[in-house]
Predict the structure.
Amino acid sequence: MAPSTKPSTRLGVAAWCLYDWANSAFPTVIITFVFATYFTKGVAPDEVTGTALWGQAIGWSALFVAVISPIAGAIADHTGPRKPWLLVTTAACIVFSAALWVVAPDPGLMVWGLLLVAAANAAFETGMVFYNAMLTRLVPDSHIGRVSGWGWGTGYVGGLVCLVLVLLLFVQTDTPLFGLDKDQAEHLRITGPFVALWMAVFAIPIFLFSPDKPETDIGTAEAVRRGFRELADTFRRARRHAVVFRFLIARMIYTDGLNTLFAFGGIYAAGTFGMSFADLIVFGIGINVTAGLGAFAFAWADDRWGPIRVIFVSLTALTFLGGAILLITDVTWFWVIGLALGLFMGPAQSASRSLMAHLAPSEIRTEMFGLYALSGKATAFLGPMLVGALTAAFESQRVGMAGILAFLIIGGLLLRGVHYRPKY
């Protein structure tokens, strides 16, 4: 990969980071905290059914992303600019999120809610392919790590600010803004339109100020043909990209561990330490804060030490802290160690993105970020399945959660075979 020679202005970098602030509201408010809880408790006939159906909807949308991302990335590489694709996916996520307002507390609207959430999530995840691929147009290679970290950190903060505003203005108040009717769950349904507005406003700068890849003279139909052919060639000539594919496999495994840790952390806290729903929200906010701080703090280390070392340090710390949290019995120590875990979650994710940017050949970079998205989704079911199986077999949440450590360790060991030569 040739050295980057097209640094952006500070405004362009800030606009790129601000997009993470904009779109992080969706997974934080809709997928993780507020709307997901409303659906399982207020729309579905019961929590068990709601949780199962919600999981299936997110799972099917993730499968769609895993299939479509490499294809879309390959096609985008031939058309040139990434921003038109990002605009389409962002607009789709905004529209589907806003439409969640119609999902009233009625089981008859359950299917509509699932379809809208799945579509919005698919648009969100697909958009990240084009967003990530823009990273190398912003700064020289020597600054990719810090900018990636700034983006992750800004995203964590943006998602949390949006969540806090939703809680203060609508959810945890006796008089929701605009006089919304709590009996019709309008104070919860408004989260869809609110997140849509949040994204629409804060996503604008990236389309105005961030640099993009130049247009090519290839038409759409030809780009589709070339995109499919290029993607097929990439897989056929996997040996040429052996280092990239080894990294993607390593990331696929340790990302399963990270995602499962996020997904089951609240369940473990409630079941083993008896934490209330209110405590879980506070804990969730806290761990996102520490994850954001970690992403910011390690941003310079990424460029100084290299992203591989940052990932190694993060996975090692997560393994030891994760082991400790499985041994303790005091809830105070759970808070201390749990929040410390967050410090290394952000850097592991941020440094993975910057490493992909360093490894990906410039001519197929968006395609490679499509495969990067695939590596984050292809085996997403393994972590939850292992935790569930171990928990059932040993009748212990602690033993079940211990399975996560295996993903972090194996992923880290596979990463040892990944090497690259910095271009700076």
Q: What stands out?
A: The CA atoms of residues 326 and 398 lie 6 Å apart. The chain has one domain: 10-415. Residues 10-415 form a domain with the Growth Hormone; Chain: A; fold (CATH 1.20.1250.20). Residues 1-6 have pLDDT under 50 and may be disordered.
